[in-house]
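Exercise 7b. Backbone tokens:
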């Protein structure tokens, strides 16, 4: 059971800090689509793919004292930052999590903002559809975000970049 928690802790350890709950949601979803060993189930939600399981798991990690959660208020908007503390580092000593070449993809995802990762995760959610239909879904379901076709193409190129990073070193993604 705690191995699922360890995967989230390891992701945060790799990047040092994740700024935003939405960003963490999208990073795990994209990682899962890149065949990283994440177990969370996702449904389509207001901000794209969302996992209630991941939300609960992160809350548990914070309550167990393995992750630090810091909230910043910017007017009516609350931003959460997640980082690993010493207790979390100690916990990982007993749970080996190896994302292999996925670590580079995780680092690369963390360089992007949550709005862009929301687009990328939505592209992946509708990846089974022909391009024009996928694009129509994004323009319909994400109309408030006002994504452009150029951004959708950038999102697709980003997915290919991440897949290329995953193929380096044979793409081995061992989870123990």
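Sequence design result:
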């Amino acid at each position: 059971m705690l191995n699922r928690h360890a995967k989230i802790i390891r992701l945060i350890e790799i990047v040092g800090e994740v700024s935003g709950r939405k960003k963490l949601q999208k990073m795990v979803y994209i990682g899962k689509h890149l065949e990283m060993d994440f177990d969370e189930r996702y449904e389509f939600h207001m901000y794209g793919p969302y996992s209630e399981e991941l939300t609960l798991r992160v809350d548990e990690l914070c309550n167990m004292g393995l992750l630090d959660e810091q909230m910043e208020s910017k007017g009516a908007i609350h931003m959460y930052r997640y980082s690993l503390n010493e207790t979390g580092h100690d916990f990982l000593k007993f749970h080996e999590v190896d994302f292999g070449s996925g670590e580079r993809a995780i680092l690369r995802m963390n360089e992007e903002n949550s709005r862009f990762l929301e687009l990328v995760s939505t592209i992946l959610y509708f990846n089974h559809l022909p391009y024009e239909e996928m694009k129509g879904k994004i323009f319909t379901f994400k109309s408030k975000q006002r994504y452009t076709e150029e951004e959708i193409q950038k999102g697709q190129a980003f997915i290919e970049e991440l897949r290329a990073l995953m193929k380096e070193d044979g793409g081995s993604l061992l989870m123990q």
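Instructor comment: Residues 171-176 have pLDDT under 50 and may be disordered. Residues 149-167 form the longest helix (19 residues).
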